[in-house]
Write a structure and sequence with these properties.
Helix content is 13%, strand content 33%. By secondary structure, it is mostly beta strands. The protein has 2 domains: 143 residues, Copper binding periplasmic protein CusF (OB fold (Dihydrolipoamide Acetyltransferase, E2P)); 58 residues, no CATH class. Strand 1 and strand 2 form a beta hairpin.
Length: 254
């Protein structure tokens, strides 16, 4: 009797331990499955909008927890920063107005390229690639009939123009995604005199300097004009025919 009473708790403990291990393993698998994919940018015209969802064409995005910037409304071109969860739902992090694509035409004109109705752009990293399919953020896109503008490779960031046909993402065009260049641009005004010295084609003489080249139309004050036709004030003219004021002509008539 004593032995049986001891064995029963041991079996119960063993069963509880096995259940706990199985539960922990299942939780780990679920956690790994629900890991969000990389974030992408999606640009398109809003076809429907509620407090919980936003649609571009037939694709719906969950915006319940997203930051919605000013101006977002039905009919507007927007950019969505989103990830796709394990249930293949798109979860938006931020929604903002997008700028239309600018197409360069013969100078000086530029035109804005409208996004076709029902089409959107997705920008993200290539995680899988074949001759007919490209995968971005875990979503397969059919590229069999697309215009491929740049060579494709794994881990490259690309922009794909997509429409949805019977639930399948169909690419119209695939191109490398450009990364904005930031920096400081310094402009130097044209015709600026950079200081005293010898400047070719300098139209205004430098103060307290000498202009020795022959395209100087205005003699500098308190300077020596060696080759010009008009002597500077308070200077001496060495080679011209007419001496400057208050100066002496070296080879001409004073």
């Amino acid at each position: 009797m004593v032995k049986n009473s001891i064995r029963l708790p041991i079996k119960s403990i063993a069963m509880m331990f096995l259940v706990m291990v199985a539960f922990a393993s299942q939780s780990l698998v679920m956690a790994q499955t629900q890991t969000p994919t990389a974030e992408v940018e999606i640009v398109g015209t809003v076809s429907a909008l509620t407090a919980q969802t936003l649609s571009i064409g037939t694709q719906t995005f969950n915006i319940s927890g997203a930051e919605i910037k000013a101006g977002v409304a039905t009919g507007k071109l927007v950019k969505i920063h989103a990830t796709q969860n394990a249930a293949n739902q798109w979860i938006a992090r931020e929604v903002e107005l997008a700028q239309p694509t600018v197409v360069q035409t013969p100078s000086p004109l530029t035109t804005e390229e409208p996004t076709p109705i029902g089409e959107f752009e997705i920008t993200g990293q290539v995680t899988a690639l074949s001759d007919s399919v490209i995968v971005i953020a875990g979503h397969s896109i059919d590229i069999s009939g697309a215009e491929i503008k740049d060579s494709l490779a794994l881990n490259e960031r690309v922009k794909v123009h997509v429409s949805i046909v019977d639930g399948v993402w169909i690419a119209r065009e695939v191109e490398a995604a450009t990364i904005p260049v930031t920096g400081t641009l310094t402009l130097t005004p044209s015709g600026q005199d950079n200081g005293a010295g010898h400047d070719l084609n300098d139209d205004h003489g430098n103060n307290t300097g000498s202009d020795d080249n022959h395209n100087d139309n205005h003699g500098g004050n308190n300077s020596t004009d060696d080759h010009g036709n008009h002597g500077g004030n308070n200077g001496s003219d060495d080679n011209s025919g007419h001496g400057g004021g208050n100066g002496s002509g070296g080879h001409g008539h004073g």
